[in-house]
Amino acid sequence: MGWTPDQTELMRSILARDTYKVGSTKVDGEKAEVIVTITALDLPRITGKLASDTLSMKLAMPSLNTDAYSRQYLKNAISDPNAPMVTSDVTITLVRKDVSWIVKQEDHTLSNALTGGMESAFGIGG
To answer: Which pLDDT belongs to residue 51?
Structure first.
């Protein structure tokens, strides 16, 4: 299943807010482990507030287009310089392929950190 252009743009906006700092690295032949501190938008907190606000607005204005309202709310929340953020340390596994290093994550810790804990909050990825 592919993403719509709106979904792709939204994800790009979310990931653009991420910052990272590379910590220690350990190389063992063709494999490496790098500890990275990632700071990302706190998406569970943002979407929790969105759900609450959307429900309140829908009760006040039954004709409200909640899809349009939610999209605009998320765009505003993502671009807010004071948006809630969360920081996590992640060990990233890399494997050498030719002259490059390729990320090889066998779990969802990296994608969860990049999305500010969204996968954990909603039980995505196990």
So the answer is: 92
- How many Cα atoms sit within 13 Å of 111 on the Cβ side? 14
Q: Of 116, 123, 118, 121, which is closest to residue 86 (Cα–Cα)?
A: 116
Q: What is the domain partition of the chain in residue ranges?
A: 5-121
| Residue 4 neighbours by CB under 8 Å, 6+ apart | none
31-75 pLDDT, tens per residue? 999 999 999 999 999 999 999 999 999 899 999 898 889 989 999
Region 9-16: what's the mean pLDDT?
92
Buried b / exposed e along 73-105 (16+ C-beta atoms within 10 A)? bbeebbeeeebeebebebebbbeeeeeebeeee
